[in-house]
Structure formats: C-alpha cells, structure tokens
Design goal:
Oligomer: single chain
Order of helices and strands: HHHHHHHHEEHEEHHHE
Structural class: mainly alpha
Number of strands: 5
Largest sheet: 3 strands, antiparallel
Strand order of the largest sheet: 2-3-4
C-alpha cells in the first residue's frame, strides 16, 4: 500500500497505528499531531452524518450514532469535499449493519431523510398547474406525459417509518401514518414530506420513463387521490419543460 493509502486508512480507523514516517516541519515525530487530525476528521464526518440524518441519530442516541458513523466512514470514506453530499450510502448501509437488525424500520427512516436531502439539493422547476390538464379532452389527457419534478422522490415502506419520522421531526400530522408510500418534494423553497396513496410510486416511475398518463396510472388505484397528492405536493412539471 502506498504512503497515501496508509495515511488514509489510519485516518479513518482509530485503532490503526499512526504512520511512523510522519514528521513535522522541524523533522520531529508528528504522530501526536496526526492523532489530533484523526480525531477532527472523525468528528467532522460524524457531524455531517448527524446533520443529514438527525432522526436516525435521535432514535439510536448520540453516542451510538457516533460509533455507527465511524464504522460507516471506514467503508465509505468521502469522495467529494462537499460534505452536504456525504452519506448517500448510509440508508442501505444501516440495513446491512448487524447490530441494527432489532430496528428494521431504521433504514426506511434513513431513506426518508436521504430523500429529503436530495430534494433540497435538486434543480428548481415550475410545478405543473392542474388547470392545464383540467382543460384537456379525455383522449388528449390520457396521451399527455407530464414529468416528475426534479426534486420529487417516492419511497415504499414496509414499516411505519413515516410515522416514526414524523414523531421525531416535529410533524405530529404524520404521527399516525401507516406503512405504504411516501412522497418527498420541493416545489419551491421548502421540502415537503407526505403520505401518498397506493399507486403514486408506480405512476411517478412510469411518468419518469415518459409513459403517457393514461397508461401510467395503475389499474385499480384511486386516480383522483393520486392526482390530488401529486398536484398538492407540486410533484409534476410539464412534459414540454427542458431537462433540468
């Protein structure tokens, strides 16, 4: 392993030996300085993850979250200097982390938080005005293909993850949400998170593939409820809008 690889590996592993080749500007041993730097890096990465996943941190506690963050950093060191992007792999990692098997809902809570972060960083676009579709003839409406807003994210949950997130994120209106579909959007300046009726995920996924609206709406689903959810959340844009 190169000197750079040894340095990086030791930086993310507190139990790893200090690189003995390190010297300060005077030529003296610099391992104590390395310990300070290593601790600062660990703190910075933990704080970045805590900022991205505050509800996960609240659910497991700060001390345990810090230990999780150290283990995660060993497997997923930062690939970008932009810490706002760090931790995209964290939700899937929590699902594979053996100590968390007793908390099967936690990866889904983490995915909600990651979706909210992605939505906050996504491109802007003007939400589709529902009056545009309301004035179309039935055949024309079925053939239209509005697209998901760049910030729209849809999740399917097997556990009451949205309710758990809501109770810990000062969203009492979501505290009784059942398992199912979750829609996250940011049509303007604020990120929105809401329960979505069954079929919303399939509809958005089909529209993302440019499937016409008539075929995108799942058979047997409550189409009116899906439309209401998507338009209330500002989750659609016109098919004629340029790619963000």
């Amino acid at each position: 392993m190169s000197g750079q690889g040894v340095f990086a590996g030791a930086l993310l592993a507190p139990e790893a030996p200090r690189p003995i080749e390190l010297r300060d500007p005077t030529g003296s041993d610099a391992t104590r300085r390395f310990d300070v730097y290593r601790n600062n890096v660990a703190v910075a990465l933990t704080e970045a993850l805590a900022a991205a996943f505050p509800v996960v941190q609240r659910l497991v506690g700060e001390t345990y979250f810090a230990a999780m963050a150290r283990d995660f950093a060993r497997e997923h060191p930062p690939r970008s200097p932009v810490m706002a992007l760090y931790g995209a792999e964290f939700p899937d990692w929590t699902q594979r982390f053996p100590p968390l098997t007793a908390l099967p809902y936690l990866p889904e809570v983490a995915r909600i938080e990651q979706a909210r972060r992605e939505a906050s960083l996504s491109a802007d676009a003007v939400p589709l005005d529902p009056r545009v579709l309301a004035g179309l003839a039935p055949d024309t409406l079925a053939a239209s293909a509005p697209r998901p807003h760049p910030a729209a994210r849809i999740l399917r949950t097997r556990h009451p993850a949205l309710a758990i997130w809501g109770r810990n994120a000062e969203r009492p209106d979501l505290a009784q949400s059942p398992p199912g579909e979750v829609l996250v959007t940011r049509p303007r300046l604020a990120v929105r998170t809401c329960a979505a009726p069954a079929g919303t995920a399939a509809t958005l996924e089909a529209l993302a593939r440019r499937v016409p609206l008539g075929a995108a709406l799942p058979a047997g689903a409550d189409h009116s409820a899906i439309f209401a959810c998507l338009f209330n959340a500002g989750a659609l844009i016109s098919e004629g809008d340029p790619e963000p």
